[in-house]
Specification:
2 domains; Dehydroquinate synthase-like, alpha domain; 11 strands; 363 residues; binds glycine; 13 helices; binds nicotinamide-adenine-dinucleotide; alpha/beta
Length: 363
C-alpha cells in the first residue's frame, strides 16, 4: 500500500484533503494549490526546521515567505509563542489571504493553527505534520490551541486546515519513543470503532514498530480516514467526536500527576485506555478478555501498560473531575463494550473509578 493516498474531510465549503505518502514535502505541486495568497509564514521548531524546512521553502518560489523557528517543546505552546507568530506575520505584511504552514509535531500544529485562527480573525493554514501522532490525530480535525499555567489546551479555537500533508519519509528521524507514542493513537482508532483494524494491528504490530512503509502508510491512512469521518459528522464534539478521547481523561490526569514531560501523551493514553477498559470490565460493560487483548498489543508495541505506582488515586480523580468532557459536575468518560465498541458513559460512579486508579497495592 505504499505510494500516495488522498482522503477528504467532508466539511462542505471547508472540505480539505489529507495527503499521505513518502516524499510529499518536496512534492510542492501537490500542496501549492492550497495556497491562495502571496504571503506564507512557515512555523516550525529548532529540531524539525534544520531537517525539513528547506524542502518546504523550495516549493514557495514566487511567493513572499518567511520562517519562524521556535524552541522545541510543549512548554513553548503558549500565548507568548502565539504572539511571536503574530509579530512574524506582521513583519511579513501578511494580509487576510496569507497562509500559515505548520511544520512539526502536535505542538507546532496546535500553536500555528491557533495563531492562524486569530490573525485578522482567521487566515488559512496548512498542516505538515512530522510526528506519527500529529499525522494520525492532531493535524486532522481543526482543534487548535495553547496551554496556560492553569492547564493544557485551555485557550483555543476550532479552525480547520486547508490541507494536511503527511510525508511519511520524515518519520525516519523521529525518535523511537515518540514513534511508539504515535502508535498508541492508532491503536485507539481500532479500539474505539474498528475491530477489523484492531485485528490487523495485532497481525502487523512488529512490522509497524519496524516502520515498514507499506504497513505504516496503511495505518496512517486508515486512522486518518476514521478520524475524518468522525470530524465530518461531529466537527465541534457535540457527541461522537468525544469517543476519540478514549483513554484521554485517565491519560491527562496521569500526565499532570506525574509531572509534564515524564510520560509522553501517547504513553499516558496507552495506560489510560487500559484503565478505561478495566473500568468497563468492573462496571460489567465489557469482558476482561478484551482488556487483556489491548494490553498485549500495547506491550508488543513497547508502550507502558501500567501507571507508575504510588500515585494518589484521589489526586488523579480530582484531576479527572476537571476534564472538559464532564457535564454538570458528573464524570463523563469514554468506556467500551469491547474491542471496536466505545461509548460515552455519563455519571460514572467515582468510587469505582478510584478502585481502577489505585495502583498502590500493585507495588
Ligand atoms: P511534539 O510536537 O512535541 O513532537 C515530539 C518531539 O518530536 C519534539 O521534540 C519534536 O521536535 C520532535 N520531532 C517532530 N518531528 C520530528 C521528526 N520528523 N524527526 C525528529 N524529531 C521530530 O509532540 P507530538 O506528540 O507530535 O504532539 C503533542 C501535542 O499535540 C500536545 O501539545 C497535544 O496537546 C497535542 N495534540 C493535539 C490534538 C488535536 O486534536 N489538536 C490531538 C492530540 C494531541
Ligand atoms: N484528539 C481528539 C480530537 O481531535 O477530537
Amino acid at each position: 500500500m505504499s505510494g500516495r493516498h488522498t482522503l477528504d474531510v467532508a466539511l462542505g465549503d471547508r472540505a480539505y484533503p489529507i495527503h499521505v505518502g513518502p516524499g510529499l514535502l518536496a512534492a510542492s505541486a501537490l500542496w501549492r494549490p492550497a495556497l491562495r495568497g502571496r504571503h506564507v509564514l512557515i512555523v516550525s521548531n529548532d529540531t524539525v526546521a534544520p531537517l525539513y524546512l528547506e524542502r518546504v521553502v523550495a516549493g514557495l518560489e514566487g511567493l513572499r515567505h518567511a520562517a519562524l523557528v521556535l524552541p522545541d517543546g510543549e512548554v513553548h505552546k503558549t500565548l507568548d509563542s502565539a504572539a511571536r507568530v503574530f509579530a512574524a506575520l506582521a513583519a511579513l505584511g501578511a494580509t487576510r489571504d496569507a497562509t500559515v504552514i505548520a511544520l512539526g509535531g502536535g505542538v507546532i500544529g496546535d500553536l500555528a493553527g491557533f495563531a492562524a485562527a486569530c490573525w485578522m480573525r482567521g487566515i488559512d493554514f496548512i498542516q505538515m505534520p512530522t510526528t506519527l501522532l500529529a499525522m494520525v490525530d492532531s493535524s486532522v480535525g481543526g482543534k487548535t490551541g495553547v496551554n496556560l499555567p492553569a492547564g493544557k489546551n485551555l485557550v483555543g479555537a476550532f479552525h480547520q486546515p486547508r490541507a494536511v500533508i503527511a510525508d511519511t519519509t520524515v518519520l525516519v528521524t523521529l525518535p523511537a519513543r515518540e514513534y511508539r507514542a504515535g502508535l498508541a493513537e492508532i491503536v485507539k482508532i481500532g479500539a474505539i470503532g474498528d475491530a477489523a483494524f484492531f485485528d490487523w494491528l495485532e497481525a502487523r504490530a512488529e512490522a509497524l514498530v519496524a516502520r515498514e512503509e507499506d504497513d505504516l502508510v496503511r495505518a496512517i491512512t486508515h486512522s486518518c480516514a476514521h478520524k475524518a469521518g468522525v470530524v465530518a459528522r461531529d466537527e465541534t464534539e457535540q457527541g461522537e467526536r468525544a469517543l476519540l478521547n478514549f483513554g484521554h481523561s485517565f491519560g491527562h490526569a496521569l500526565e499532570a500527576e506525574c509531572g509534564y514531560g515524564v510520560l509522553l501523551h501517547g504513553e499516558a493514553v496507552a495506560i489510560g485506555m487500559l484503565q478505561a477498559a478495566n473500568l468497563s470490565a468492573a462496571l460489567g460493560q465489557a469482558a476482561a478478555a478484551d482488556t487483556k487483548r489491548l494490553q498485549a498489543l500495547l506491550a508488543r508495541i513497547g508502550l507502558p501498560t501500567a501507571a507508575p505506582p504510588h500515585l494518589d488515586p484521589d489526586a488523579l480523580l480530582a484531576r479527572m473531575a476537571l476534564d472538559k468532557k464532564n457535564r454538570a459536575g458528573r464524570l463523563r468518560l469514554i468506556l467500551w463494550r469491547g474491542v471496536g465498541n466505545a461509548f460515552i458513559a455519563e455519571g460514572v460512579d467515582a468510587d469505582t473509578v478510584r478502585t481502577v486508579l489505585d495502583t498502590r497495592s500493585a507495588s
